[in-house]
Write a structure and sequence with these properties.
Elements: H1 2-8, H2 10-27, E1 43-49, H3 55-70, E2 76-84, E3 88-95, H4 101-115, H5 121-126, E4 129-131, E5 137-144, H6 152-168, E6 173-179, E7 184-190, H7 192-197, H8 202-212, E8 220-221, E9 234-235, H9 245-249, E10 252-255, E11 261-263, E12 268-274, E13 280-283, E14 286-295, H10 301-316, E15 324-330, H11 331-361, H12 364-371, H13 373-387, H14 394-425, H15 429-453, H16 456-459, H17 463-488, H18 490-498, H19 508-532, H20 535-555, E16 568-574, H21 581-596, E17 601-608, E18 619-626, H22 639-651, E19 657-661, E20 675-680, H23 688-704, E21 708-712, E22 719-726, H24 728-734, H25 738-750, E23 752-759, E24 762-770, H26 779-783, E25 785-787, E26 793-795, E27 800-807, E28 810-814, E29 817-826, H27 832-846, E30 852-855, H28 857-888, H29 893-898, H30 901-914, H31 921-950, H32 955-985, H33 992-1035
Parallel strand pairs: 7-24
Antiparallel strand pairs: 1-3, 1-4, 2-3, 2-28, 5-14, 5-15, 6-14, 7-12, 8-9, 10-11, 13-14, 13-17, 16-18, 16-19, 17-18, 20-29, 20-30, 21-29, 22-27, 23-24, 25-26, 28-29
Biased composition (Pro residues): 1043-1052
Region (Disordered): 1032-1052
Subcellular location: Cell inner membrane
């Protein structure tokens, strides 16, 4: 027998266990640490800029050509785009989770190259950027001057030159953005009236720049081929590219009739200004600049963050006086806190399990043998985690925490049976070990195979839900497999050497425990025998429980990933359309005043002109980092409580709409917490105003729906726009080229990137634009001049008509359709599943014909996971059934064991609902696990009952005896497991929501399964035996040959 080998050779068994433990110890330092596995689907972004263009022009000239080319790229799930009034086009292609991000980025780049010929020349000149960086910020850093000695331009360029490039070299960093950026640019501010007075247009300035500011390769003197007598070869440097503002001011534009040169400084001024003035940053109430660090999708967040901070500390040593940096929002703090909390939970679970073992097994020898399975099974599992490419994250640690109560089960069953044989039959430890393993080895293997089998379909499932299940499931499966190996090798080997007969009196406490257990066993046996005399009562009660389970399944609120306290709050600000950035900054000051009054707030990182939904002068976003979790122990100090508390004072800010949000539950999936709902113009014949009206009606009805809270959309079509219509016939008659009219407006009003210059060993851009006072009002457009082919100057007021209209500042597409995103969340006490259902009902009632709706982001993941969960659950039950059928050589007997599952589900969902939790993904993970756990106790009873049946006992006697004999190990293993789950149920702090959900489901399911199935399993076994017996008698079949070696019957 396999087990006999290890009983005879205990050193071999010990060495095997030591090797498994050492391999796990070696693997631990090499494993990355994360809050969750990589759940965000791969994304590739395409960003381009059409300077001076409105959102509609960007949409038609840039976004649509790129979208049409990118649509349908291999493994694409969906494509979104944003076109904004600042000339920016951002397209995001989201791929299937299995898609290799490197290959996807190459495919996208190739398609962008094919579309480049259809884009405006200025877009290609500015450049199209393809990125595969994570869509979620890892870390924000504020750079400021406490004594205000440095302005925003200095701070921005210091960060650009000295910090940004160094941080980008840190391993794992994908992108570094500067908020409040004022990157150097040579600005030529023109005076349109001076140009017109000299019969010149801004195009003349651009041509002069292109002619006189250029890099020249002047060659070499004596460059080969040359004569043999050539004595030297010298490089020639022709200084064509200008550097200083004065040099640009001296660029010659033309010469007057008197021969005097007209230069740039005669028609305007030149300064070393900034390339972009569209955003600002306030850090803790002071003007500054901010750096947002994005990690690569495949990088480890904690390693990247530590590398960035280490580099910043090194760079800070050379900061000039009066300059300092400080971290803002740090998403890895939640990761560290969550992982640490789970580790503490794991330690608590181990301590409680050892306590239960000591309580039931009494002797230190038994406790030692059983406890030794913990390091082998748990630590050894890390080697498997390494081999599978997993990380140390919430899910793998959850698996180990739950496995703490499982891995000792097999050892408890083995030791309890060996000690029983020593006490009842007087066998020595060696004999009892051999005989005891003959009785329980089959059950131990069957239980382990069932627990592993239930996770096989889970491990093979694709998508985000599959990623969540996979790491949890395979971690438990590995630990259970190792614990089974220990139970069949190390445990019997040590038991045969260490266990002793108890000759002296036991402690009073242990005697009382044994007396209670003996009384419980005897009372249980008598009551069970009486109850099984009426098996129909058991059947009716069982069917009633099935009905209750079905009702709970239908009525329990559903969810996906519970919102966690991630240590920061996101505040969205949207002012009236057309609000200037300076006015948005005043709103931010009001927001900061509200935040400063909150004791939980630690750091404020406010970005004006930016929002996740698109950039604009009336938008702003405030990332508010809170104090550490240990300083926020009250329930009213959590992120969720603070968000609710902020709604009132922030809602009173009358000059803008200010809404606080929790961050998204999964980094990289969505921009804010709550749901993301998309309204689409699928007909393609609705105006932006129609789209805005439809979505505003939805928002109104959504906020009237009691199950929803904070429903809003940043979209509207009321942004003031000046519509310029050119009188083409008149322009043609006067000899004014149409492209010159548009060129004049673009150069004066929107600016144009012409070429580059070198400064401080870097290359920067040269822009041409009208001076600020010449583009302050709509009337200024008419005062610009265009030149006829005859050389006459014509004011634009005679050629164009300027009409004020309204349009959208940001135009979004979803799968190529114009779309609007609506955000919101469930009201307090409403699950995310109920909120999604409510929003769908609102859309069904409010959307007009030709418009449709879809979910995106984390809401899409939740909707897609609903059907997958049922499939996973069904496959788990099927695999367990097939394994049991093979084990018992029967298709009928496994039904008895499988029928224990609904009762466990009843307990899980019942306690989940009682505690106000949703049937979310962590609850569903627990339900899948309960398929194996609830089968475990049933196997212990049925396995032994089958052995007794093979010896000729009746079904009733066999199952009652088996239930009595197995009661003690069932109670021991179940209590050990339940106490190991208690720390999950009662957890608080970072990551507590997930632990609470999983712990509650598993605790409730295991508790009900243990208690109720001690009655139902024997009853169903008797009924099944009657059915089997009747079937066999009617068909004349004989009993199948025994599948196990006969074991002697033992008294209870």
């Amino acid at each position: 027998m396999f087990v006999d080998f290890f009983i005879r050779r205990p050193v071999f068994a010990i060495v095997c266990s030591i090797i498994l433990t050492l391999v796990g110890v070696i693997a631990i330092p090499t494993l990355p640490i994360a809050q969750y596995p990589d759940l965000a689907p791969p994304q590739v972004t395409v960003t381009s800029t059409y300077v001076g263009a409105s959102a509609e022009v960007v949409e038609s000239a840039v976004t649509i050509p790129l979208e049409q080319e990118l649509n349908g790229v291999e493994d694409m799930r969906y494509i979104t785009s944003t076109s904004t009034n600042d000339g920016t086009s951002t397209i995001t292609v989201t791929f299937a989770p299995t898609r290799n991000i490197e290959v996807a980025a190459v495919d996208v780049q190739n398609r962008v190259s094919r579309a480049a010929a259809r884009l405006p020349a200025q877009v290609n000149q500015t450049g199209i950027v393809v990125n595969k960086a994570s869509s979620q910020m890892l870390l924000t850093v504020g750079l400021s001057s406490p004594d205000n000695r440095y302005d925003a331009k200095f701070l921005s360029n210091y960060a650009d030159v000295n910090l940004k490039d160094a941080i980008k070299r840190v391993r794992g960093v994908g992108e570094v953005r500067i908020f409040g950026e004022r990157k150097f640019s040579m600005r030529l501010w023109l005076d349109p009236s001076e140009l017109a007075r000299r019969n010149m247009t801004p195009q003349d300035v651009v041509r002069a720049l292109q002619e006189q500011n250029l890099q020249v390769a002047a060659g070499q003197v004596g460059q080969p081929p040359s004569s043999d007598e050539q004595p030297y070869q010298i490089a020639v440097r022709a200084r064509g590219r200008l550097v200083e503002p004065e040099e640009f001011g001296d660029i010659v534009l033309m010469r007057n009739n008197d021969g005097r040169a007209v230069t740039v400084k005669d028609v305007g001024r030149v300064e070393l200004g900034a390339e972009n003035y569209g955003t600002l940053l306030r850090f803790n109430g002071r003007t500054g600049v901010g750096l947002a660090i994005f990690q690569l999708p495949t990088a480890n967040a904690l390693d990247v963050r530590d590398g960035v901070i280490k580099e910043l500390d090194r760079l800070a040593q050379s900061f000039p006086p009066g300059l300092e940096y400080r971290t803002g929002t740090d998403t890895t703090l939640a990761v560290r806190a969550s992982v640490n909390e789970v580790i503490h939970t794991l330690i608590e679970a181990i301590a409680l399990v050892i306590l239960v073992i000591f309580l039931f097994l009494h002797g230190w020898r038994s406790v030692l043998i059983t406890a030794l399975t913990l390091p082998v099974s748990l630590v050894g599992t890390f080697a498997f985690v390494y081999l599978m490419g997993f990380s140390i994250n919430t899910l793998t640690l959850f698996g180990l925490t739950l496995a703490t109560g499982l891995v000792v089960d097999d050892a408890i069953v083995v030791i309890e049976n060996i000690e029983r044989l020593m006490a009842e039959r007087g066998l020595n430890a060696f004999q009892a070990a051999r005989e005891g393993m003959k009785e329980v080895a089959g059950a131990v293997v069957a239980i382990s195979v069932v627990l592993v089998a239930v996770f096989i379909p889970v491990a093979l499932f694709p998508g985000t839900t599959g990623s969540i299940y996979r790491q949890f499931a395979l971690t438990i499966a590995a630990s259970v497999a190792l614990s089974t190996f220990c139970a069949l090798t190390l445990t019997p080997a040590l038991s045969a050497r260490l266990l002793k007969h108890h000759h002296g009196p036991k402690w009073v406490f242990f005697r009382k425990v044994d007396q209670v257990l003996d009384w419980t066993r005897d009372t249980y046996g008598k009551g069970l025998r009486k109850l099984l005399a009426h098996p129909l009562i058991v059947l009716v009660a069982f069917l009633a429980c099935i009905g209750a389970t079905v009702m709970l399944f239908r009525s329990a609120p559903t969810g996906f990933i519970p919102d966690e306290d991630q240590g920061y709050v996101i505040i969205s600000v949207q002012g009236p359309e057309g609000m200037a950035l300076s006015q948005t900054e005043k709103v931010l000051q009001e927001v900061e005043a509200v935040l400063k009054a909150q004791p939980e707030v630690n750091v404020m990182f406010a970005i004006g002109g930016f929002s996740p939904s698109g950039n604009g002068s009336n938008y702003a976003t405030v990332f508010t980092a809170l104090k550490p979790w240990e300083e926020r122990t009250g329930k009213d100090q959590s992120v969720a409580a603070l968000v609710e508390r902020l709604r009132g004072p922030l809602g009173k800010i009358g000059s803008a709409r200010v809404i606080p949000f929790q961050p998204p539950a999964i980094r990289g999936v969505g921009s804010v917490g709550g749901f993301q709902f998309i309204v689409e113009d699928v007909a393609g014949n609705h105006s932006l105003e129609d789209l805005a009206n439809a979505t505003q009606e939805m928002v109104r009805k959504g906020n009237e729906e009691g199950r929803l809270r904070g429903v809003y959309t940043p979209f509207n079509a009321n942004t003031p726009i000046l519509d310029v219509e050119v009188d083409r016939q008149k322009a043609k008659a006067l000899g004014v080229p149409i492209e010159q009219i548009f060129g004049v407006m673009q150069l004066y009003m929107g600016s144009q990137y012409v070429n580059d210059f070198n400064y401080a060993s870097r290359t920067y851009r040269v822009y041409v634009q009208a001076e600020q006072q010449f583009r302050d009002s709509p009337q200024d457009i008419g005062s610009f001049y265009a030149r006829t082919e005859a050389g006459d100057m014509i004011p634009l007021e005679s050629l164009v008509k300027v009409t004020p209209i309204v349009s959208a500042q940001v135009i979004k597409h979803y799968n190529l359709f114009r779309s609007v995103e609506i955000n919101g969340q469930g009201a307090p006490g409403v699950s995310s599943g109920q909120a999604l259902e409510a929003m769908e009902q609102v859309a069904q009632a409010a959307l007009p014909q030709g418009m449709s709706s879809e979910w995106t982001g984390i809401s899409l993941e939740q909707k897609e996971s609903g059907g997958q969960t049922l499939i996973i659950f069904a496959l788990g039950i099927l695999f367990v059934f097939l394994v049991l059928a093979a084990q018992y050589e029967s298709f009928s007997l496994p039904f008895v064991i499988i029928l224990s599952v609904p009762l466990a589900i009843m307990g899980a969902l019942g306690l989940q609902v009682a505690r106000g939790f949703a049937n979310d993904v962590f609850c569903q993970v627990g339900l899948v696990m309960l398929v194996g756990l609830s089968s475990k106790n049933a196997i212990l009873i049925v396995e032994f009952a089958e052995q007794l049946r093979e010896q000729g006992k009746s079904a009733l006697d066999a199952v009652v005896t088996a239930a009595e004999v197995r009661l003690r190990p069932i109670l021991m293993t179940s209590i050990a497991f339940l106490l190991g789950v208690v720390p999950l149920m009662t957890a608080d702090g970072a990551g507590a929501a997930a632990r609470n959900s999983l712990g509650t489901a598993v605790f409730g399911g295991m508790l009900v399964s243990t208690i109720v199935n001690l009655i139902f399993i024997p009853g169903l076994y008797v009924l099944m035996q009657k059915v089997r017996g009747d079937a066999k008698r009617s068909s004349g079949e004989e009993d199948a040959p025994p599948s196990h070696e006969p074991a002697p019957a033992h008294a209870p």
